[in-house]
Amino acid sequence: MPSTSKQDTTVRPNYRISPIHTDESDVDLSDSDPTFKINENKPLSSGSESSSDSPPRLESQNQNTDEPKKKMRKRVRNPSKWKQNIIKNLRNSGKAYVSLTKKQVPARSMKNPCTSKCRLKCAEKIAESDRVVLFNSYYKLGSLELQRAYIRSCLMEVMPKYKYTNAQKPRLPNNAFYFTVNEQRIRVCKQFYINTLDISDRQIRTVKAKTDSQGFLEQEKRGKHDNRKRINSDVLQDIKDHINSIPRIESHYLRSKTDKEYISDGKTIKDLCNDFNKQQRENNRTECDYWLYINTFNKDFNIGFYQPKKDRCETCLSYELAPLDKKNNLKTYYDNHLIEKDLCREEKMKDRENVDDNHVCAIYDLQSVMLCPSPSYFYYASKINCLDFTITQLNAKATSDNKSYGDVFCYFWDETQGNRGANEIGSCVFDYLKNINSSYPNGNVHVTFYSDNCTGQNKNKMIACLYSFAVVYFENIQSITHKYLIKGHTQNEADNVHSLIEKEIKKNERGGPIYAPCQYATIIKSARKSGNPFTVKELNYDFFLNLKQLQDQWGYNFNENVEKEKLNWTDIKILRFVKNELFFFQYKTSYLQTEFKTINMRNKRRKMLGADEIVLEKLYRQPFTLKENKKKDLKDLARKNLIPSFYAAFYNSL
């Protein structure tokens, strides 16, 4: 048996790497314990909208480059990508575009200068190269307001020298046009001016009309008005406080690299808004309209009502949705992906057919988080996270009297007793292997496991060292093989086990809330209506083993095989550990491979403990303490008699 010596390792490292996204690693090669620690106090960030009146300036593009990009629940409008604004920006920049009426408008181009008969001799004063600079600089402004301001700076009123005093229409001031070249202000004629900038007389008249008596140019007013409804900042803050008060649910599969938070789906946004207004009425504060609540919920938060799905294949989806011209580039990768998927399933069928007195095939997986008390009854109170790790043994063949799986072993604990990283998962697997070892006293047992690619639980150095240790430690187990299901196609018999448990939980909730974690254990035992009931083992903190320490003592090389080839753990499909190959393990990076490759975990001369000197030690010395806000909510429920006194003692002791 493993040693029971204890070590104070109750600190929870914050390990977050997603096994889902194809551009992220699905393996832990770090020396830290891959356990999960939720951040319940995520800071809120707010977004801003681009102006539709002018293209973004260089200054705004360079601001806040060190700040993380804000994520929100829904997409927000991006005026810079609106078709009408794209056309406007192209027009203001002098580029060709297709109008909203499908008319092809050519790009602006500099016209010929004035003729030689011009009395100002403009062409002699300003060279053609300078005209090109003026033309390009004008359209580089890209803003109608800036271009009008430039035109205004080039104009000067010229009063007529002679006026008829009795004229019905007195002569109006004329315009003198100037260009600034090499810091010299040069007067030009109107024809030279409009041909150089390729503008019309209408633009000049508009600038004149928008210039007031003090010489200031009026700002563009199209699309602007001041009659928008003002938002009460106090009400907005109350809405944010209300949304922040909703307890978050830990995401099961994508918890590592997602900023998205999850809340129970027991209420809709409309229900939350109604609850908020009821709370405001009770506190004699201002209520809000639904549009304001849902806008705040969608724009200032990144919250979802459902936990992410683990079996959605991004590779298949991206190929199906790819444009036809890009599908050809993806086809080879996609075809290999489908081949691996089919071969993996064939491999599982073969392992099932080989199940006998000497071969065991099992699938293990961690079920979605269960909350206690039941979320639908105490929506706004923080709850205890309960975890159920299942190991499902496969039968050789499914018949009408015999399901595809046989015995199911459930390991149940809550967050006060442990985390859900490789230490906890590996401890449960080690206990299962101990049962297998005692159930087959004649020896020569070969164990095959299947699981998904979850980094912090199934595919890391600690699990590899545990398998290697177990093959040596248990005399009746001759080999352990772990085969990883292909991402996005991890549907398996364990899903049916989880479905039965969730169905039984919902049936029990019809009769009232689930008040304590121990009730979940009872429900899991009764979930299976035919055949052997699920075996449930309720775990305490002293059950879990320190696999991080085992890894440090067992080996140090996990990345270079005996042929000096580097191993990328992301590519691993199969791991195998054999009793007579101490400190070695074999692997395949594809189900197409016929031969295993080998890694020596002690490939250098380094003084380390022998296999018989290594013992497994306990991971935790005491239970975990809940966060203060969670303890307060749970104790308040007990104090208000919302939890029966029979279960209240459990919460008061937290």
TrEMBL record:
It holds the Pfam family DUF7869. Residues 70-80 have a biased composition (Basic residues). Residues 410-509 form the DUF7869 domain. Residues 1-82 are annotated as: Disordered. InterPro entries: DUF7869. Residues 43-60 have a biased composition (Low complexity). It comes from the Eukaryota. Residues 1-12 have a biased composition (Polar residues). This is DUF7869 domain-containing protein. It comes from Loxostege sticticalis (Beet webworm moth).
